[in-house]
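Lecture 7, part B: from sequences to assemblies.

Below are the input chains for today's worked example.
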Amino acid sequence: EAGVAQSPRYKIIEKRQSVAFWCNPISGHATLYWYQQILGQGPKLLIQFQNNGVVDDSQLPKDRFSAERLKGVDSTLKIQPAKLEDSAVYLCASSLEPVSGNTIYFGEGSWLTVV
Amino acid sequence: GDSVTQMEGPVTLSEEAFLTINCTYTATGYPSLFWYVQYPGEGLQLLLKATKADDKGSNKGFEATYRKETTSFHLEKGSVQVSDSAVYFCALSDPGGYSTLTFGKGTMLLVSP
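Predicted structure of the full complex, as structure tokens:
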């Protein structure tokens, strides 16, 4: 079974530039998550989708971050304009449905450095 | 709100030593508990989980028991290997919300030959 796919793996941009990350979840998984992991910290949820609807985006900095999940499958996360503090790993994850105890599967992450 | 507290790292051990990484949590209701592992340059992988009190999760020689009375989910392994060197994250999923994961800060484990 294919896992969660993410691209690009690595990206270096200058502050105030924009960047987009792409995620393809495990086939059949209705729930998709984007997490931000800053070096030395645990992942923090940015946004959660159920099919193509947003169920939690309370921690997404909406003035610069946006995300969409068209057709309830792939998703993109965009940052515009980027700040130095956005340097982090952006992890996409998916699960069958948002039930406590269900396993959430993570991709390898997209590593962003803002200079 | 929900929170997870893990012991500070790095934890440095010799091969075949006994491992304990402490994890305690605060949550409303009865969460599910998880340990994830992150190898250098890779994403998170589920190591084990427990969904109710007194359940024991186990995988690859690692074990953790869900202790409701002490709100703990400590990770243990009887004999570590060099290949176990990684960062370990304790996490919880609260059934009252959207079942997202709340993570601890992670504990780095370094095993030397």
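Note for the exam: The interface with chain B takes residues 4, 33, 40-45, 48, 50, 55-56, 91, 93, 98-109 of chain A (CB under 8 Å). Keep this in mind when comparing with the next example.
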